[in-house]
Design goal:
heterotrimer; A alpha/beta; B alpha/beta; C mainly alpha; A: Rossmann fold; two-stranded antiparallel sheet; about 30% helix; globular; B: Rossmann fold; five-stranded parallel β-sheet; about 30% strand
Chain lengths: ~260, ~325, ~700
């Protein structure tokens, strides 16, 4: 099975507060460190496991600037066979559709049975997988948390839906799936692993290699444009109780009693 | 001006989801003059019941009745919508796991604009809609301008457009089943595997003491259990706690866990991602304890305490015990 | 002089001269033995290199002390004394057995030097030795067979019980001493009957006893006893010799070598591969131990040498809390693998199988805190920490790292601390100190005499920052010119290395080394034993490193640091030895002296569980992130030990110990009853701080006089 996994380089925000730059044009990026989007990492692990079982190869692709190469390399250290970087000044400012357009062109230059994306990334949109499937006219499933290969024509998949339930489907190949975290336990990639693939050549394709019209992607083609970043006004938020731990506890107990929170 | 507004109605067991009303509210926020049309797909009596139910809020309800639509499979419904919707339609869909499945591809097939997970609208100027989204798990918000000239599919975050109840508009159901035509089944629904039910049913509890990442360590769960015991409450949690296997899946509140409707919700060390809040219904009295004053939970909580839960909760437990 | 009985070399059986048999038996026995040893050597020859042919003086000293002197045996008194008796008996009777074997084909053979007075003396000693060996075997047999100490139990997941083998060998030893004694006694009895016996029979020995019993027997009966006893001894001796390398009694042969080659340093970690320096690690095809042949030959020798005594597992904290690790079975399973894949007969070139998922499990290997209690206890010098580290290196190389550890490792790579906190916040703990105790940050050319290496947990953890602040105040009050590295400091990488992520460790080490050397400090002090051990053992070419307890003792002695009498005399303090201060660095006294420098302090010891028998609190560094399967927390057991010792304050000298013990006090429900405090905090509380105002007052007073 030939599998393509789309990955994104995102700021690692787990431990650190994101702050908005003074002019609101961007978040403060100086102190941020970047890594591969968590969902995408699960997708790559799943692809590697599928190939381990069913044979074939895994290709990792990322749309981004030259720094996105580091996440492609990392996923190759994890065990992906090939890497691909889609980078061009014309891609800058692409919205979801633009990104999907670029990826579509890359998919069409290969011969893939399965295309995986993460279910979500830093922008919380969760859109590229579904768009890519529609552009390629392939079946699609989102928030997939289980994949079983039935035969070379179809997969059995599980989607994580509300209530923690799992919705099982049979889906025809080739298809596009967006992967939910928890589907597997991604393997560790150490510095040594990354160094081993440090000298592997990762092709970089731009508009000309992909045959994408520069005006179909990038900021100009975007129909959804981000205007600014801001931290929502906390004014309407909670009434913050202040004082010593004991004082706060006393105040809270009164409130809880009034609301029936203490039985 | 943008085209006709539609709302896709999600329902379960013959009853429309809360989002059916929320989408009316959202449509009003986009354009106060809009009169959205409801789209309800399915088959049989459940479908009819839902169609009738939503006539209370929608003037026009399009009904699509077909065996193939019996289970809401986004892969099939998308094909249907592409056939029946006008080119410049503005389609509102709840941003739940169905909406995430359906909408991105739908926008591509309609060649319209997709706007994911919107939490607010700030007005329509010509064909440009200004919406509010969140990024980085809700840590920061952004304004986005969306071009509606070719129509749009807009996914609206469940729960943010709180509806006041059905307006009693007395709309009519239009059966459009004849327009369905042939549907290709490339993804076939098999079954739904229900999450395991644990020893406690948190969906039926009035008071929940809910713990998140801030609990830090499995052994600290005890601190929450002691507080819950003192309050006569039950312990629930957010997703990371279940991922870490510190509590059972049945204790998880959120879109990928249980939907709860308590009267009082104590959120201890929970940052308040929308996936978590998505599982919190019925407008409870929310108390948030978190050492990060910028945690999004403080935006939705009624009362906030900026303290380390590991320090505060034992004091509270002790005080409650004293008062008894 | 005509012998009283026909000797084995002169006797014949059914007309065949027995000398033929007694030449054939040793030849066959030695031949088989040599063959077995050769086959046992095969894996060792395929093993990874190990650098042990060095420091011969120290190695010989170890052999004399630990092997010959049985130094570690009395730590388990009854078993230890029994072993010493049997071991001493073996050494003494070895000469006699050799003589007996040769007597089978050389009449009246006497070992060179065993004639004359020494021979007579030896004869008495060996008779007593044989006697005590039998008594020791009987007691040991009763102990193993009837009382069955829990230590020897084999949990079902590790295979069958080993009692039979133990009893069988005790039986063989008994047969050897009994047959030797019978052989001798029959001769003495015959000599007595013929009036030939000149010497004395040592009273109360087996020989004495048997002589007494057989004094009335006929000469022919004595002759029969003599011949049969010899035959039994001969056969048993060579059977035993060839039986030894088949199981845990291989240690009888390998122990002297294993002790000779045992590790000489503590606290250090073996290089990834001996002979490959840090700069050339990238050239290695594979890292760590993945298959059996990746072990070094010494580690394989460890497997052969394990006597299955269970002391390691008895002292192992992971085993005590039912984590899936028992060091004893690390060895036994390794040995069984070697025996199975390198059989004595037939093909021994079968393809090697991965150890993880084979004989070892991932959780088993991650469960080790590297506390070193097992190695401290092993009477045979078997090593575990390096094996754990090597197996982990192999797992890391294969990507087999639990999710709970991947996060902190990723953060260490990107941010230099396991929580992923921002580098620039590393010195934030000093902010509260700004007024009374300024802390210099040694950057941009700023320098100080002493560098305080804080390390991650004391820099970032809210509670442990107290230790950092106390340490800074102590240094300040003692008048030491010191500073910290601030954002240039990275995690010491102590656990990064011990968890098998060598390359990440190398990165952290290089960054820290550069920052430390740039700071221009002449000495380093730290309050974190893990950092202390890393800087001392894992880093090289740094200024001398001191733990804060040493600094306290030094400055108190010099009078630059003065301590007040104890604040609360009613409290009973107990000191918990951190593994990386005590066992790994031999710092037992300084922390105790530092505590005792507080006049009036009431300090007790956790007798039997202190100093080199300290019980690990649960592990530091990355172990805080790992979520082991366990029934109990190590810290809880430790707190209970402190409680039993009558203490209500546990003094630690390590931030990780403090985390674990404070947690354990809560988990054990002993809040209010027990408390934990770091040594630096305790000392800082009792420090005499000269308030500047008071000083000027006294000066005023002086000037007014």
């Amino acid at each position: 099975m030939e599998i393509l996994v789309c990955v994104k380089r995102v700021p690692d925000t787990a431990e650190n507060e994101i702050e908005v730059a003074a002019d609101g044009s961007d978040i403060e990026r100086d102190d941020l460190v970047y890594s591969v989007n968590e969902w995408d990492n699960y997708a790559v692990e799943e692809a590697i496991q599928l190939v381990d079982k069913a044979g074939g190869s895994v290709t990792v692709v990322s749309v981004g600037d030259e720094e996105a190469e580091e996440v492609v390399r990392r996923e190759m250290a994890m065990g992906a066979n090939n890497g691909l970087l889609l980078s061009d000044d014309a891609f800058e400012g692409s919205d979801g559709k633009g990104t999907a357009t670029i990826l579509k062109a890359a998919v069409e230059k290969g011969n893939y049975d399965l295309i995986l994306t993460g279910a979500l990334a830093d922008d919380g949109a969760g859109q590229v997988g579904g768009m890519l499937a529609a552009m390629l006219d392939l079946p699609f499933a989102s928030v997939v948390n289980r994949i079983e290969v039935m035969d070379d024509k179809k997969l059995k998949i599980g989607r994580e839906i509300e209530g923690g339930n799992q919705e099982m489907h049979e889906i025809d190949l080739p298809c596009v799936l967006s992967i939910q975290t928890g589907i597997n336990e991604p393997r560790y990639v150490g510095i040594r692993g990354i160094r081993k693939v440090a000298s592997v050549e990762i092709p970089v394709w731009g508009t000309s290699e992909l045959g994408v019209a520069a005006d179909s992607v990038g900021a100009a083609a975007a129909r959804v444009k981000r205007l600014d970043y801001f931290v929502p006004d906390l004014g309407e938020g909670a009434e913050i109780l202040e004082g010593s731990l004991e004082e706060v506890a006393d105040k809270l107990i009164e409130m809880l009693k009034a609301k029936g929170g203490i039985k | 001006m943008a085209g006709q507004v539609f709302a896709y109605i999600v329902y379960k067991e013959g009853k429309a989801d809360d989002t059916a009303l929320e989408l009316v509210k959202a449509a009003g926020k986009i354009n106060p003059d809009a009169s959205p049309t409801a789209i309800v797909t399915g088959s049989g009596s459940d479908l009819d019941a839902v169609c009738n139910e939503v006539t209370a809020s929608y003037k026009e309800v399009w009904k699509f009745d077909n065996e193939a639509l019996a289970y809401p499979n986004a892969e099939i419904i998308r094909q249907l919508l592409v056939k029946v919707l006008p080119a410049d339609a503005v389609v509102l869909v709840a941003h739940d796991t169905f909406g995430m499945d359906l909408s991105p591809g739908l926008a591509i097939m309609l060649d319209s604009t997709f706007v994911p997970d919107v939490v607010d609208f700030e007005g329509l100027e010509g064909d440009t809609l200004k919406a509010v989204r969140q990024e980085f798990s809700g840590q920061v918000s952004t304004h986005v301008n969306c071009d509606l000239s070719n129509g749009a599919v807009i996914n609206v975050r469940p729960g943010v457009f709180q509806a006041d109840g059905a307006a009693g508009v007395g709309g009519q159901v239009i059966d459009k089943s004849s327009e369905i035509g042939e549907l290709v089944l490339r993804r076939r629904y098999l079954e739904t595997v229900e999450a395991e039910v644990g020893d406690v049913d948190i969906t039926k509890e009035d008071v929940l003491v809910s713990v998140g990442r801030g609990i830090e360590d499995q052994d600290n769960i005890e601190i929450a259990e002691e507080l819950a015991e003192a309050m006569g409450a039950v312990v629930s949690c957010s997703r990371p706690i279940v991922d870490a296997k510190w509590l059972e899946k049945s204790r998880q509140v959120g879109t990928s866990g249980q939907t709860v409707k308590p009267k009082v919700y104590m959120a201890l060390g929970i940052s308040g991602s929308f996936q978590h809040l998505g599982g919190l219904k019925g407008n409870p009295f929310i108390v948030a304890v978190n050492k990060n004053p910028k945690a999004p939970i403080f935006q939705v909580a009624d009362v906030g305490i900026v303290e380390d839960l590991l320090e505060f909760a034992p004091v509270l437990t002790e005080k409650i015990a004293e008062g008894k | 002089m005509e012998p009283a009985l026909i000797s084995p070399a002169s006797a014949s059986f059914l007309g065949i001269p027995e000398i033929i048999i007694y030449i054939l038996i040793p030849l066959t026995g030695i031949g088989i033995f040599a063959y077995i040893i050769y086959r046992r050597m095969v894996p060792l020859l395929k093993a990874a290199p190990d650098d042990r042919f060095n420091r011969f003086g120290e190695r010989i000293k170890n052999v004399l002390k630990i092997w010959l002197g049985q130094w570690r045996h009395p730590r388990y008194m009854l078993a230890g004394v029994l072993h010493i008796l049997i071991f001493a008996g073996f050494l003494i009777l070895g000469a006699r057995s050799t003589q007996l074997v040769i007597l089978g084909f050389v009449d009246n053979f006497v070992l060179p030097g065993f004639g004359g007075a020494f021979g007579t003396f030896y004869s008495v000693v060996k008779d007593y030795a044989a006697t005590w060996v039998l008594i020791a075997c009987i007691i040991a047999g009763i102990r193993r067979g009837i009382f069955k100490p829990a230590r020897y139990a084999v949990p079902s997941k590790y295979g069958h019980d080993h009692t039979f083998e133990a009893l069988f060998v005790l039986g063989l030893i008994s047969v050897l001493v009994l047959s030797e004694s019978l052989f001798e006694a029959s001769l003495v009895a015959a000599e007595m009957q013929k009036g030939l016996h000149a010497g004395i029979v040592p009273p109360l020995t087996l020989v004495w006893f048997f002589t007494l019993l057989s004094s009335g027997a006929s000469l022919s009966a004595l002759q029969g006893m003599h011949s049969v006893a010899y035959f039994i001894h001969e056969v048993t001796f060579f059977f035993f010799l060839c039986f030894l390398p088949l199981g845990k009694h291989f240690h009888v042969i390998t122990s002297i070598f294993n002790v000779f080659f045992m590790r000489l340093e503590r606290g250090n970690v073996k290089p990834v591969r001996y002979g490959v320096d840090d700069e050339h690690l990238d050239d290695l095809e594979s890292f760590g131990v993945k298959v059996f042949e990746d072990f070094t030959w010494k580690h394989m020798l460890d497997f052969y040498t394990c006597a299955d005594c269970g002391r390691c597992s008895d002292r192992c904290p992971a085993n005590a809390v039912s984590r899936p690790l028992s060091p004893r079975f690390i060895s036994i399973k390794g040995r069984d693998y070697a025996f199975e894949h390198y059989p004595l007969i037939g093909d021994n070139s079968a393809e090697s199988k991965p150890l993880i998922g084979g004989i070892y499990s991932e959780d088993e290997i991650w469960s080790c805190t590297t506390c070193g209690a097992c190695e401290q206890e092993c009477p045979l010098g078997i090593e575990y920490i390096d094996k754990m580290v090597d197996l982990r290196r192999g797992m890391v190389d294969e990507g087999m790292v639990p999710q709970s550890l991947q996060k902190p490792l990723g953060a260490l790579e990107k941010r230099g601390n396991p929580w992923g906190k921002m580098e620039r916040k590393r010195a934030d703990w000093t902010k509260e100190l700004a007024e009374d105790c300024p802390v210099k940050i040694l950057e941009k050319g700023k320098t100080a005499d002493t560098l305080y290496f804080v390390d991650s947990i004391s820099s970032f953890d809210d509670r442990m920052q107290e230790i950092a602040r106390s340490t800074a105040k102590i240094l300040h009050t003692a008048g030491i010119d010191f500073g910290i590295l601030g954002k240039a400091e990275k995690d010491s990488g102590h656990e990064v290395r011990r968890f098998g992520e060598e390359m990440l460790f190398q990165d952290l080490k290089d960054q820290n080394t550069e920052a430390i050397l740039n700071s221009g400090a002449k000495r380093i002090v730290t309050a974190d034993p893990h950092a202390y051990n890393a800087l001392k053992k894992d880093y090289s070419d740094l200024p001398p490193v001191e733990h804060i307890s040493q600094t306290i003792v030094r400055t108190v002695q010099a009078g630059t640091l003065q301590l007040k009498p104890v604040e609360d005399g009613s409290k009973v303090y107990v000191y918990h030895d951190p593994c990386y201060l005590g066992r790994h660095n031999n710092l037992y006294e300084d922390p105790r002296r530092a505590i005792d420098a507080i006049v009036g302090i009431n300090r007790v010891e956790m007798e039997g569980n202190c100093r080199d028998r300290s019980f690990c609190c649960g592990g530091g560094g990355l172990m805080l992130f790992y979520e082991p399967e366990e029934e109990q927390r190590m810290g809880v057991l430790r707190v209970q030990m402190a409680k039993e010792a009558g203490a209500n304050v546990i003094v630690t000298a390590c931030p990780f110990c403090l985390v674990n013990i404070e947690d354990a006090i809560k988990v054990a429900g002993l809040e209010g009853e027990m408390e934990a405090i770091d040594l630096a905090e305790l000392v800082e509380r009792h420090m005499v701080v000269d308030a500047p105002a008071e000083q000027s007052e006294t000066e005023d007073a002086k000037s007014s006089k």
